[in-house]
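**Sequence, structure tokens**
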Amino acid sequence: MKSHDEIWSEWQDLVNMTPAELRKWLDTDESQAVGDTHGDGESTGHKSGRRIIEIKGRKKADLDDDDWAHMAKVVGYIKRHMAQGGPREDKENSDWRFSLMNWGHDPLKQER
């Protein structure tokens, strides 16, 4: 199990969208069209994005166990999906990118 310091460090590196960027993204049709909804209308990633905004609004010292668990889940998701490499063509408009963005990571952000 990772320490809070390890999770924090990876979170800082991987969650590269600001709360404002993520909030704006979550309002798009593209954001709402990707991911598994488990039958309740909102995808797991979309819910995660809303939670990420909440967490980013807190100080490290104010995070609770549920926050740390979600942060670890986000880090794991981003790492797994980045390892897939995404599609060879049109990464910018791919479900792969859109899903990662729901989880707070724009894989093209560092490339711009």
Q: What stands out?
A: The helical segments are 4-14, 19-26, 29-33, 44-56, 65-83, 95-102. The chain has one domain: 4-104. The first helix runs from residue 4 to 14. Residues 8 and 71 are 8 Å apart (CA to CA).
